[in-house]
């Protein structure tokens, strides 16, 4: 894995991009886990936001996200309880914070309890939004596998400018916390045919976002 270095851009207080953080073998391993998660007990689905299906399909771990709340059971799908949040992912999240330059105390205490695992096909997009359904404002750790995308990272006040468009490639790590935790962000485009050989995907993009819900039960 590539450690944090001063040349890695800080896009705002607490926002860091670490390119190529996951090796190809690690990416392929995650893709295999994703295919298992997507088969159940709660199958991958496109959530409905204000009555409209998202173009991104999601499977959840630990807690089930549905607009705009978390539940243990997928009451908007089939009522089944979601798979538990895996211990290895929590360890990976703590390592991610360390290697993104977060203070050791914060990294060591990072305890994500849910992950939203999103699958993007060639035409999928994600509108500008804030991750604010969590009670905790601990950092969000984002991992990308497969086709590159244009990721728009904005400000905390509104969906418009100022924002920065980044190309997130397969294996990239993006972390946002602190003053950037509630920044608006989205995906404006997926770039088909950019997934590297050996990542486990021929096309499409998988994005894992780890969060701390701050919920009990």
TrEMBL record:
SUPFAM superfamilies cross-referenced by the UniProt entry: Clavaminate synthase-like
Cofactor(s) demanded: Fe(2+)
Keyword Metal-binding found: yes
Organism, scientific name: Streptosporangium jomthongense
Domain Fe2OG dioxygenase span(s) in chain numbering: 111-214
MF terms (GO), sorted A to Z: dioxygenase activity
Keyword Endoplasmic reticulum among record annotations: no
Sorted UniProt keywords: Dioxygenase, Iron, Metal-binding, Oxidoreductase
InterPro entries per record: Alkb (IPR004574), AlkB-like (IPR027450), AlkB-like_sf (IPR037151), Oxoglu/Fe-dep_dioxygenase_dom (IPR005123)
Lineage, top ranks: Bacteria, Bacillati, Actinomycetota, Actinomycetes, Streptosporangiales
PROSITE patterns noted in UniProt: FE2OG_OXY
Official protein name in the record: Alpha-ketoglutarate-dependent dioxygenase AlkB family protein
